[in-house]
Amino acid sequence: MLLLLFLPFLLSYTSSAQQNRKKLANYIYEPYKQFLFEAKYDSAERKTHIYILMKVTDEFRDGGTGIEYLYFCEIPDTNKIRVDFAYNDTLKKCYNWNELTQAEANPKYIWLHPPRSHFHGLAAYYPFPEINIPIKIGKKYKRSDIIFHEPRLHGKMLCFSHKIKIGDLEKYRYKDLQIDVYRTSGQAESKLGKHSFYYLFNDQLGFVHWYYNLNDVETLELSLIGVY
Fold this sequence. Notes:
The chain is mostly beta strands. It has two helices and twelve strands, in the order αβββαβββββββββ.
C-alpha cells in the first residue's frame, strides 16, 4: 500500500527531472542562436587574433543540429548579428568560405564540433567539447582518436587517448559578471608530443572557454564574448 502511495510522487519527480534535463539541453544550443568567440592562436610560426561566430541552424546533420562557423579578422557588428541571422560581413571575414558541422544536445549530454578547419588544424587533436547531464563532478573517463594519413607526420597514422576529468565549480569572468563554470580537462601523449586541453561550461551559456595546448609551443584559446 505504501508503495502505491509513493509511486505517483516518484513518477512525478522522474518526469520533472527529465523535463529539466531537456530544457537545459535545448535551451543552450537551440536553433537560430549565435555565439561570438574571440580566438587567439599562437605558435612558433605565427600568431593569429580573430573572431569566430558560431550559428546554430535548424538543420539536422548526422543525428545532430547543424552549426556554422564564420571567421572574422575584425570584430563583427553585434547589433546586426542580433537582428539578422543571415548577417555575413564579407569585408571583415578572414576566409571566403564558412565551416559547416554539427552539435548535439539531448537529455543525456551536450557536445559540439569545435572549429577545426584553421589554426593548423589544432582542435582536431582533442576531444569535442562535451558535458554529461546531470554533471558529475570528479568523473573520469577517456576519449581515444585515430587519424589516418596525418599531414604533420607525413601521412602516417596518429593514435592517442586523452585522460579526462570533470572538476569542481569555479568562477569565470564573462563580460562584467562572475559566473559558475565546470572545468573539463585532459592530457594525452602521441607521436606529435604532449597534448593538454580544458573546456569551461556554464549551464546557461554553454561552453564559454576552450583551450588547446600542444607541447607548450602551439596553443589555441577561444573565449565567448556574446550570445545573440
